[in-house]
Design goal:
The structure is a single chain. With 272 residues, this protein is an all-alpha fold. It has helices spanning 30-42, 66-74, 79-93, 98-107, 109-120, 128-142, 153-175, 194-203, 209-220, 225-232, 236-256; strands spanning 49-51, 63-65. A two-stranded antiparallel ribbon has the order 1-2. α1 packs across α4 (98-107), α5 crosses α6 (128-142) and α5 runs parallel beside α7. Residues 1-28, 175-192 and 261-272 have low confidence and may be disordered.
Length: 272
């Protein structure tokens, strides 16, 4: 997969325009290109900004440049202020103006870089660009899907971005051999694996989609339960109980032959 290049056509920001041609194509990975484009959108006349007065939170009651907003949200903004700001940003991104999509990416950049660093720490260097591209692609896709009526909008977006990065790491690790001589040694992908098992269990009505997502994130992708709980806005203890019940149903279905998988050793009775 080639590195994603974020270069939307010259787009109206509502107060001016920018020239995407100022960002050299292919310079740096997807996050580096996005950050460079974001800086063009928040510097000088016509910069992207939101009205802090309309948010009714502890944020300044004035027009706030998105570059400044990023710093405010990183500092000591309340959870309510963060959600109010992010709800406004996502609504702007859904308006169809690509500049606001990049605005969302730019405001989330510290979190996106942190997620990328954590995933890349255990990934081969050759996969870095593809992993970062997938992370960013998933983040942008979720801007149009995330529920703005639920709390913790930004953490939930970052959680989905992490899932995209981990998905790319798993896929590329299977499909890209280190050396051409190793091509014959790459094992064939099994007909079923834990993630496929979960998809089948959902299709069979054994577990709910939300429970399958919980199991996949905390069992297969290494997301800490505390992190997942924060992103979902749900008590950690409740999520442990939900996962235990779902895994019990899944284990029973496996034993009864209602669902099948080549590898199911990750299902435990009393998961940590």
């Amino acid at each position: 997969m080639a590195t994603a290049s974020i270069r939307p056509r010259s787009a109206s920001t509502g107060a001016g325009t920018y020239d995407p041609g100022l960002v050299p194509e292919g310079e740096g990975n997807a996050l580096a290109v996005a950050e460079a484009t974001f800086r063009l959108l928040v510097d000088g006349p016509g910069a992207l900004e939101i009205d802090g007065r309309a948010l009714g939170t502890c944020l300044p009651s004035r027009r706030i440049n998105l570059g400044e907003l990023r710093g405010l949200l990183l500092a000591d903004a309340s959870d309510a202020a963060k959600d109010a700001a992010w709800a406004e940003l996502v609504r702007r991104a859904r308006s169809g103006d690509p500049a606001w999509v990049i605005g969302c990416v730019g405001v989330a950049m510290p979190g996106l870089k942190n997620v990328a660093a954590r995933v890349l720490r255990t990934a081969p260097e050759r996969l870095a660009d593809d992993i970062v591209s997938e992370l960013l692609t998933e983040f942008v896709a979720q801007l149009h899907r995330v529920d703005l009526d639920r709390p913790n909008i930004a953490p939930r977006l970052l959680l989905w971005a992490r899932k995209g990065a981990l998905r790319a790491r798993r896929r590329e690790s299977r499909l890209v051999p280190v050396d051409p001589a190793e091509i014959c040694a790459v094992p064939a992908e099994p007909e079923s694996e834990p993630s496929a098992l979960l998809a089948d269990a959902v299709a069979q009505g054994v577990v709910a989609r939300a429970d399958a997502d919980l199991i996949e994130a905390t069992r297969l992708e290494g997301v800490a339960m505390a992190e997942y709980a924060s992103a979902c806005g749900a008590p950690e203890k409740r999520l442990y109980k939900r996962r235990d019940r779902a895994e019990a149903r899944l284990a029973a279905a496996l034993l009864a032959g209602h669902v099948s998988a080549i590898s199911s050793g990750w299902v435990s009775k009393n998961g940590s």
